[in-house]
Amino acid sequence: MRLPLPGRPRRDTPDLGVRRGERLLAWSDTSLGPVGGTREALYLPDRRVPWEEVQAAHWDRDSTALVVREVGTWGEPQPVHRLSVAEPGRLLELVRERVSASVVLTRHVPVVGGRGLRVVARRAAAGDRALTWAYELDEGLDPDDPGVREAAERGLAAARAEVEPG
Asked: CA–CA distance from 87 to each of 16, 24, 39, 63, 81 (Å)?
């Protein structure tokens, strides 16, 4: 039986449906229910998001909003989750560390007028899957523009050559 440390209240681990073999490392209560993270994924109230599929996350102290932005699909709106979290505690530290750890390579590709896109390679925490590749377009770039698509393909080929030689 695990006992709480002296002077600290006991916090029962929430049931987030964590997969077998994973262990909840940090969690916090939110407006939509508990949110937590393991070494492999972020557990939101309604879904599991592997770290390599989380583009970014931040917490705004003034609005108490935890905003999690998933990696999107070319030309589609990115899934964004907004949750009210009074105090994220260690969860925010875990999110930042795991998202950063998933990024293997980021390369900027200029497109037009100072705007461009980033080609990003991410790796699953377990390292048991191939790299996933994604694009992050600067505001105002049209994913349907042939010039943007060509720059993305060129940038991806160059980035892949760096990471996957031969």
From this structure: 19, 18, 21, 11, 17
| Containing structural domain, residue 141 | 103-163
Residues 82 and 107 in one domain: no
Q: Detail the DSSP E strand segments found in the chain.
A: 26-30, 33-37, 41-44, 47-50, 54-60, 65-70, 80-84, 103-112, 115-122, 132-137
Q: Do the domain assignments include residue 31?
A: yes
Region of 72 (left: φ > 0; alpha: ψ -120 to 50; beta: rest) is: beta
Q: How many domains are there within the chain?
A: 2
Q: Say yes or no to pLDDT of 6 above 80.
A: no
- Kindly compute the dihedral angle of the four CA atoms of residues 17, 56, 61, 29, in this order, to the nearest 10 degrees: 0
Write the pLDDT tens digit of every residue in 63-121: 999 999 999 899 888 899 999 998 888 999 999 999 999 999 999 999 998 899 999 99
CA 45 to chain centre: 16
- Position 12 in a domain: no
The pLDDT assigned to 77 comes to 87
**Does residue 21 fall inside a structural domain?**
no
